[in-house]
Structures are given as structure tokens and as C-alpha cells.
Amino acid sequence: TDMVTGGMNWLYFLKKSKKLIKGRFKKGNYAVVHLRMPKYRSFCTCFGVPKGEELIERLYLELKKMMRSKEVFAHHEKADFGLLLSYTDQEELLSRLNGIIQTLESGLVQIRLKFRIGVCYVESPSVDVEEMYYNAVLAREMQGEDKEQNIAFFNIEMSKQRLWERKVEDDMER
What we know:
It is globular, with a radius of gyration of 17 Å. It has a five-stranded mixed sheet, sandwiched between helices. The chain has helices at residues 10-24, 40-47, 49-66, 90-105, 129-143, 156-173, and strands spanning 29-36, 72-77, 80-87, 116-121, 151-153. The longest helix is centred in the N-terminal third of the chain and has 18 residues, at 49-66. It is an alpha+beta fold. α5 (129-143) links the parallel β4 (116-121) and β5.
């Protein structure tokens, strides 16, 4: 059990996702999604940590309403959630992700909330779900906070770029 939301915890998400992917890989498509509210720390600074945790719980309950059967999600940390979503085609997935953002940004609290999403497509039934989640995180991070677009999709070039940046940083230290 997650201590903030009272729902399933991160370990459950990882195990259940792996099971769902293995069991249904040939029957449909899955995407691992990283959902973040970037200004969560500011929210907690203004309204306090208890109000921040109440907000996380409300986000959890809203997300729960939007989940389909054979999908799973969990609170990860701070204002981050991991989702395993099924989809028929990329257009339908994009529409659904925009709907999730719109629902979460409209009317949960009196102030305007903003959300960002990173997506990593599941391409094999033997994937490491946590690695895919961090690929989705990477996609969201490389998108930047100032961009108009709220959804970023992972591709292998992002990994290569991050490795190159890390190498440059290591070389600079030496």
C-alpha cells in the first residue's frame, strides 16, 4: 500500500505491469507512462505538505476512474505517477493522454495545475518495466519545462544524447 494515496504501491505496479505485458502482449499494445506535476514543491510551499498529500490522493482517485481493465497505475514519489496503458493505435493513445491531462488540470483545486507526460512504448514481452518507466522520465525531462507540448515520446536517440552529455560532464570533471 502506498502511504500517501492508500492505493497500490510502486512494487505492485512493477510486478503487475510485467504480468499484464507478458499475458497480453500479442493481444494489444502497451505504453509505460510517467505523469508528473512539475510545480508540486511550489504547491506544498504555498499550502503545506498535508494539502500536497491530499492533492496527490485526489489525483490518484481521478486516475483510478480513468483506468481500463488490464491496466495498472501507482504513485511513485512526490507528484509522479507511473501508468501502464493499453491502446489500439498511437493517435488513440495521444488523445487519451491529452484527456488525462485535461481532466487533472481542470477543477481539482482552485489554482491552475500543470502536468507533463513522458511515454515509452512496450516493444517486447520481456521488457524491464522500471527501465521503460525511466525511459519515459527521460523523454519528459528532455522535453523541457517551457515547451507548449505536454507529452513527449521516448526514442533511442534520447538515450544516446543523455549518455553523450554524461560523458562530457565526466570529462569536464577530469
